[in-house]
Structure formats: structure tokens, C-alpha cells
Amino acid sequence: MDTSIIDEGKLYWSIGEVAALFEVRPSLIRFWEKEFPMIKPHKNKKGDRLFTREDVKTFGLIYHLVKERGYTLQGARDTLREKPEGISTTADVVEVLKNIRTFLIDLKKAMPEGESEKS
User: Is 44 in a helix, a strand, or coil?
Assistant: First the structure.
């Protein structure tokens, strides 16, 4: 999950972009929208959902709780309602650690043969 898209200068993301960001189907995004009342997308004249930066960040927290930590939907809802700041910090740390891991794996692949065993 590459959350760098959240920081670009965009105001709204389509449901397809949000689904691609979290590598899930758009139907799951629609389902989570119904299950988590804090997500309130804007809708254009055609009725397409347009998600704000805050919506996308909330989806990131939901994804972290449900998909990565194994919470039930009710557990995720309760956690987001009671202590959202603790969850966002934990999710941020997990994301940073994943990025470091990816960087180290790429670095190891880039090393000439035999160099990685010398360490």
C-alpha cells in the first residue's frame, strides 16, 4: 500500500483510485463506507463518490485494523471511535517499517553476488 498518493495536491479521489491504493475491490470500499459512519464521501452530479484526503486516511486506518491486525468490523469501529490518534500513530509506524523493509530488500538485490554474505 503506497500512501504517498495521499500527499499529492489532489482534493478528491475516485472510488477506483482508493480501491487501487489499498489493493481491494471497489465493492469493499462501498461496504466500508456503509459500515463506518465517519466516512462521508462527496458525490458529483452523476452520483460518483469522491473521497477527501481525510476519507482516504480513514480507509487506511480501517485497512490497517481489519486486514493487517485482524479486527472485526465492530472492533475497528469501536477502536476508531475511542482512540483514533493511537491507531494512526501505529499505522504510520507500520507503514514506515514496511518502506524500510522494501528498501533493504531492494538494496540487497542491487548488491553484487557474494557481497550480501560478507556482512
Answer: coil
